[in-house]
Amino acid sequence: MTNLIIFGPPGSGKGTQAVKLSTSFGLVHLSTGDILRQAIANRTPLGEKAKAYIDKGELVPDEDVAQMVVNAVDRNTDAGGFIFDGFPRNVFQAEFLDRTLKERGTSIHYLIALEVPREELIKRLLKRAEIENRTDDNLQVIENRIKVYYDQTIPVIDHYKKQGKYYPVNGLGTIEEVNRRIGDIINKK
Ligand code: C5P
Ligand code: MG
User: Fold this and answer.
1) What pLDDT, on the 0 to 100 scale, is given for residue 138?
2) Nearest CA owner, ligand 1 atom 21
3) Nearest-CA neighbor of 103 among 73, 82, 65, 61?
4) Distance of CA 105 to the CA centre of its chain
5) What's the gap in Å between 32 CA and the centre of ligand 1?
6) Neighbours of ion ligand 2 (CB under 5 A)
7) Which fold has domain 2-188?
8) In this structure, what DSSP letter does residue 153 have?
9) pLDDT at residue 189, as a whole number
10) How far apart are CA 133 and CA 46, in angstroms?
């Protein structure tokens, strides 16, 4: 089993790369952001609750996303592995994920961290706003999402660095170039 976290600030290309990697390596793509947006579209109780956080660029409470992740993992017991996209968002969630996988006899193998400068992130997210219609892709919310990333999510890097699982990747360039950089890391091991 191969489990990886695709990590990076909003707009770094996590979702795009996760879709490609899930095809080439036969892994289940588990995007917590997509699950939350689907819950909002379906007007489920979780969706109703999550909407207020997402529209401000804040994190949905740990217990809600943790439960979502456990459900998704246990729905895919035959998976060859997972790509966690958008989770963990803080150290508590990282510890939770490690525990959850350990209880199921597996673990995280790679934290692939996409590195993209702040100005480029904002440029990409404003462009996505014109295409995808995400309610949280406007300048004020984007700036808060980047702030939340630096305040709460960055410490996850150290958590996996200590475990020897941290792999930084240059997130600039074409989708194919970035994909090749990630593929090289996974193939080498
Ligand atoms: O991962 P993505 O950028 O799609 O997430 C969009 C929003 O969903 C985040 O800004 C946050 O409000 C919420 N989210 C969260 N916890 C996660 C994933 C997403 O709170 N694990
Ligand atoms: Mg995404």
Assistant:
1) 92
2) 87
3) 73
4) 22
5) 7
6) 15, 33
7) Rossmann fold (3.40.50)
8) I
9) 65
10) 21
